Amino acid sequence: MSTVDALKQRLLELKKERRAIILAHYYQRDEIQEVADFIGDSFGLSQQAAATDAEVIVFCGVHFMAESAAILSPDKIVLLPEPRAGCPMAAMVDVEGLRALKAQHPDAAVVSYVNTTAAVKAESDICCTSSNAIKVVNSLDAKKVIFTPDRNLGRYVARHTEKEVIVWEGYCHTHDHLTLEQLEQVKAQHPQALTVVHPECRPEVSAAADHVASTAGMLKFVRESEAAEFIVGTEAGILFMMRRQNPNKKFYLASPDLICPNMKANTLEKTVRALEHMEPRITVPDDIRRKAKQALDRMLAIK
Ligand code: 13P
Ligand code: SF4
User: Which residue's CA is minimally distant from atom 7 of ligand 2?
Assistant: First the structure.
């Protein structure tokens, strides 16, 4: 038996013993997606974390995702195989800065992308993910919205709402790195292909795409499209599910640099170790957790 197969087998045994569920984001390594109980985008993963009756959630994603699971399911043990797997964009907004901006715009509602710390969520009125950001913003009574931390998603939302959107200047290195020139080059090589990108890409990149959506939304578009070839503007890990769901379609990554090192920091070995030792655990202090949960619950309540 290969090492990978032995690790997968051990993981299955441990999962049963610990009454655990493995949640994985679409950007995780292929071998992790192969053993996961649920693979999803940030929104789907939050829904699963809130609904599961497992005792242990092994979160194969980045820190804010595991933290959201701990906020939504405080009675569960939440493990993050590599605790240093952070999201640099989530680190671009802090509570002090957000409070200062709120003081400048006391009439604005605060919408925070789930890619934020629990403390920032606790300072926010409602959370959103890339799959529901426009719906969340349009659901609010306020005419003015502070949107943190992603400037690209914020500007994308601003183009689809009547509300005034004050955008925090954060960004995702992985997506923001993709330029329109790079995309145009790949399009010229594959003129028959449709382009699908994540809204964390720059506005000019999103404007040049045929479809802009969350990871789950991109997968749905590709599945339902009659086109046979696609240029993909998001993290490379999504190709695993795109190819599995569409074995007869062809996919071209818009840039070879579309890799999130944090997402790739979780490995099968670390996932096995996490379940063996029941750590590293992700917890959130109760006062912050309660406030952050309100912002997440409000988002989950929007249909
Ligand atoms: P999704 O919610 O689309 O899965 O995106 C999460 C993320 O981190 C994108 O970089
Ligand atoms: Fe954060 Fe970007 Fe990685 Fe998503 S891809 S986890 S936004 S750094």
Answer: 172
189 and 145 part of one domain = no
Number of domains comprising the chain: 3
Closest-approaching ligand to the CA atom of 220: 1
| Atom 4 in ligand 1: residue holding the nearest Cα | 41
Kindly list the protein residues whose Cβ atom lies closer than 6 A to any atom of ligand 1: 41-42, 115, 129-130, 172, 198, 200, 214-215
Q: Give the pLDDT confidence of 194-250 residue by residue, as tens digits.
A: 999 999 999 999 999 999 999 999 999 999 999 999 999 999 999 999 999 999 999
Q: What is the pTM of this model?
A: 0.96
User: Average model confidence (pLDDT) for the chain?
Assistant: 97
Residue in the block written with tokens 């449709």: 194
Pocket test for ligand 2, best of 89, 112, 153, 266 (most atoms within 8 A of CB): 89
Whether residue 303 is predicted with pLDDT greater than 90 in this model: the reply is no
Do 142 and 214 belong to one domain? no
